[in-house]
From TrEMBL:
Record protein name field: PaaI family thioesterase
InterPro entries hit by this protein: PAAI_dom, Thioestr_dom
Thioesterase domain: residues covered: 71-129
Region Disordered, annotated ranges: 1-29
Bias (Acidic residues): 1-12
Organism: Sphingomicrobium clamense
Signal peptide: none
Length: 165
C-alpha cells in the first residue's frame, strides 16, 4: 500500500459510509461486502469506493454479463442503479454529513456504451450541502478513462425510518 493509499484510508475513517470495510481485493478502497442477496442493491455486486481529495470520491462496480442488455452494452437500469448507489457511497466518502438520505432527483446522460469485463467508475463530487440537509452531487462514469455516462442528483437527509422514536 502506498502512502497515498494510507492517507486516503485515514481520510475515509471520518467519512466512511455505514457498514463499509477495507476492500480486501483493492488496497486503499472501502466496500460493502455483505449486502443481503435478497436486497435490490445486491444486483450491482460488490461496490468499492474511496475518497479522492476535497469533496470528491470514486465508486467502482465490476461489470459482469448479468449487467448487460441484449444489445451488448450495460443495461440502462444497471447504470442508473449504480449511479444512485454511487451518490450515497461517493457522497459520504467526499464529505457528505452523516445521516440517512433519500434521492430526491437524479438525471443521467448516456454518452458512450459501457462494456462487460471492465470496471465502471463513478467520479462523484459534492457541489453543495445545505444546513437543511440537501446535498447536490454531480459526476461522470468512465471505463478505461473514457467518460461514458454523466449524472447529477439531489439527496435529502431524513429521519431514519428504522428509528422508532
Amino acid at each position: 500500500m502506498t502512502s497515498e493509499d494510507d492517507q486516503n484510508m485515514a481520510e475515509s475513517e471520518e467519512n466512511r459510509p455505514g457498514g463499509a470495510v477495507p476492500d480486501p481485493d483493492n488496497p486503499g478502497w472501502l466496500c460493502w461486502p455483505h449486502i443481503p442477496p435478497e436486497k435490490f442493491a445486491a444486483q450491482i455486486g460488490v461496490l468499492s469506493f474511496k475518497p479522492e481529495g476535497e469533496g470528491q470520491a470514486r465508486v467502482r462496480m465490476q461489470v459482469e454479463d448479468r449487467h448487460m442488455n441484449p444489445g451488448g452494452s450495460i443495461h440502462g437500469g444497471a447504470v442508473m442503479s449504480f449511479i444512485d448507489m454511487a451518490l450515497f457511497a461517493g457522497g459520504r466518502c467526499a464529505g457528505m454529513a452523516e445521516g440517512h438520505y433519500v434521492t430526491l432527483e437524479m438525471s443521467t446522460r448516456f454518452l458512450k456504451r459501457g462494456s462487460a469485463g471492465k470496471p465502471l467508475d463513478a467520479v462523484v463530487r459534492i457541489n453543495r450541502q445545505t444546513p437543511g440537509g440537501l446535498v447536490f452531487i454531480a459526476g461522470h462514469c468512465e471505463q478505461d478513462g473514457e467518460p461514458c455516462y454523466d449524472f447529477h442528483g439531489t439527496l435529502k437527509r431524513v429521519r431514519d425510518p428504522r428509528d422508532k422514536k
